Amino acid sequence: MSRLRELVRRTARPRPQAIGFGREAEPAQPAIVGVALVDGEAEAQAAVGAGAGALLYAGPTDGAARVVSAAGARPVGCVLAGATGDDADALVEAGIDFLVFDDRLTEAAAVASPHLGRVPQLGEEVDEASVRAIAMLEPDAALIEPPPVTTEGGRLSARALATMRRRSALLRAPLAIDARDDSSVIEPGTLAAWRDSGAPILIVASGRTEEAVLAVASVPPPPERERGRADALLPGLPGWSGGEDDDD
User: Fold this and answer.
1) What are the residue ranges in the chain where pLDDT is below 70?
2) In a domain? residue 127
3) Does residue 23 lie in a domain region?
4) 18, 20, 57, 164 — which has fewest CB within 10 A?
């Protein structure tokens, strides 16, 4: 399991509250993992300083190790649409935690390593049969575009959120919202809706890291009824179960 997946699992679990005069309650865990897209060491350092929970590197593979070093304990992924087996070996050696890739362009050898998490990109046109096929890769997460705003009031539609939940259920993995576009809306209400529909990961451009961190901090935890009630589609967190692989 990738460190990204472990981090997401922690966001799905409430922290125990202190009782009586014992030890203080643990600090609240953000309800969403904020990931900053960086192109090198300098941006990585800035994103870490701004509070990013993880990094996604978009530069050449020979610069990955420097970004990993700048990230400290944070997971670092690399986005490489058409990765080869040699690319994957180089990324593992550099300390990269997960690979974001296009399954139609990437070599099978690139996703065979048990040391590299798998995060396939799902286009808007992907159908259910393709999602089921991608699930056979046992992804750690899947990258999707922000669902379109389709209601007359400029809000997310129930259909869009239900589609997200369905994809997460079929993949048995959380979704990551690709909000790298500067026009993407980052506000607590939308983030909570995405999270509750199976997308507890948010990827933003490095320049918007501080904005995203502040928005994530304002997202409330899942309602208690959602934590304790078995969902008809998936147990636990709607759209994805944070504890389905506890025994791994």
Assistant:
1) 12-29, 149-154, 223-248
2) yes
3) no
4) 20
